[in-house]
Design goal:
six-stranded mixed sheet; three-stranded antiparallel sheet; 9 strands
Length: 314
């Protein structure tokens, strides 16, 4: 601000921003009007404005940092860098009551024995009191074993559609990563989510990707990460209590290469063999696939089923 120092002349006060601009304008006016006022300057400061000016850059930096962290943790953009903070999280897909799964046991032709055993497990989760009141214990796991294309994964999809309980689905290769410790971390996160949503079902397709027998072809520690993942899976399955109400389903076409600790009772209590369909089951498969098609009345499913020995549903 500026004010006059004269005691006899009028005193004026004026607030301005830029001193250089003000002095230029004042010099122009005084020279044009031939006046020479006495001028004194005083500097006024605001604590609030000084505080804001000092702290605002830090607030902006913190805001930008939080924005970047959220973008990276949420995997925005789908890039590898965007997923770096979620690398230890489970990649399992969750199917629950809010997910529209259109596959049911009616869509699985044949496999009557396998469907009966699977339906018993599903019913145990939906109505546990009916079994526990008689002293029954929930099975901890079931392994679907059979040649490729026989319907193991389709049977698991039918379980997701029929169970009406949270169903976590993923492949054995989803645990495998180039970073050390990621596989074990994903196993822990998967079972943690399942426990929180119990009763629930976990389905691991192609479990032989992580469940191979330990100590074989282990040159220069190349399989250490896979074995750590398997060890964590064994620990999680063995640590389940009888009242956890979480069942692990797995599928493989190479049961002979699985680790013996994984196959013992208490982890995979049941092995359900899914074999190639016989002639009656092949007829049912043809009827399921031909039903939505426009076809001639002369199509004979009995003839087709007899002409396809050794074929799978795939």
């Amino acid at each position: 601000s500026i004010f006059s120092m004269s005691s006899t002349a009028p005193n004026y006060r004026y607030k301005f921003g830029s001193l250089e601009y003000f002095e230029g304008q004042l010099s122009k006016i005084t020279s044009e009007n031939d006046v020479h006022p006495e001028i004194a300057y005083s500097e006024e400061s605001s604590l609030l404005s000084d505080f804001l000016i000092g702290i605002l850059p830090f607030i902006l930096l913190i805001g930008v940092w939080i924005f970047i962290m959220r973008r990276m943790s949420s995997g925005a953009g789908g890039g590898a860098g965007g997923q770096i903070f979620n690398i230890g999280k489970s990649k399992a897909r969750l199917f629950d009551q809010n997910t529209d799964v259109k596959v049911s046991f009616k869509d699985v032709a044949g496999l009557e024995g396998a469907k009966e055993e699977i339906q018993e497990i599903v019913d145990f989760l939906k109505n546990p009191d009916k079994y526990t009141s008689l002293g029954g214990k929930i099975p901890k796991g079931a392994l679907l074993v059979g040649p490729p294309g026989t319907g193991k994964t389709l049977l698991a999809k039918a379980v997701a559609g029929e169970a009406k309980v949270p169903f976590f689905s993923l492949s054995g290769s989803d645990f495998v990563e180039m970073f050390v410790g990621v596989g074990a971390s994903r196993v822990r996160d998967l079972f943690k989510q399942a426990k929180e949503k119990s009763p629930a079902i976990i389905f691991i397709d192609e479990i032989d990707a992580i469940g191979r027998a330990r100590g074989k072809n282990n040159f220069s520690g190349s399989n250490d990460e896979r074995e750590n993942t398997l060890n964590q899976l064994l620990t999680e399955m063995d640590g389940f209590g009888t009242h956890t109400n979480v069942i692990v389903l797995a599928a493989t076409n190479r049961a002979d290469v699985l680790d013996s600790a994984l196959m013992r009772a208490g982890r995979f209590d049941r092995q359900i063999f899914v074999d190639l369909p016989d002639v009656r089951e092949r007829k049912e498969i043809f009827e399921v696939h031909l039903k939505p098609l426009k076809k001639s009345k002369d199509v004979d499913t009995d003839f087709l089923s007899k002409q396809t020995p050794g074929f799978s549903g795939a």
